[in-house]
UniProtKB/TrEMBL annotation:
Protein name (database record): Cupin domain-containing protein
Taxonomic superkingdom: Bacteria
Organism: Micromonospora polyrhachis
Length: 100
């Protein structure tokens, strides 16, 4: 199995054999790198904002995230997160690593 790590967030702030924790900071109208999630994950919003998840196929999902909003996701299609707000958006992404 491939052990590729895409740039999911701004920085990895913790990692062990079970989880990888990313901080994602998006400046006003900024976007994350295009990336894939190879592992299931949960994110928790720490700075609110209107964001859009854009997929390579052109599909777009809007979210008006509030502080403490959280969602669990399975591994998913290549995408990026775009901050549509006039202030910095931030969340913490916790990847659940598969034990190999």
């Amino acid at each position: 199995m491939e052990n590729r790590v895409d740039q999911i967030g701004t920085a990895i702030i913790f990692e062990d054999e079970h989880i990888r924790v990313w901080l994602l900071d998006l400046p006003p109208h900024g976007a994350s790198e295009w990336h894939d999630h190879h592992n299931p994950y949960r994110y928790v919003v720490t700075r609110p904002g209107l964001v859009a998840t854009e997929y390579e196929d052109g599909h777009r999902e809007l979210q008006d995230d509030l502080v403490s909003d959280t969602r669990f996701q399975s591994a998913d299609a290549r995408h990026r997160l775009v901050n549509l707000s006039n202030s910095t958006y931030q969340n913490v992404v916790i990847e659940f690593l598969r034990v190999r």
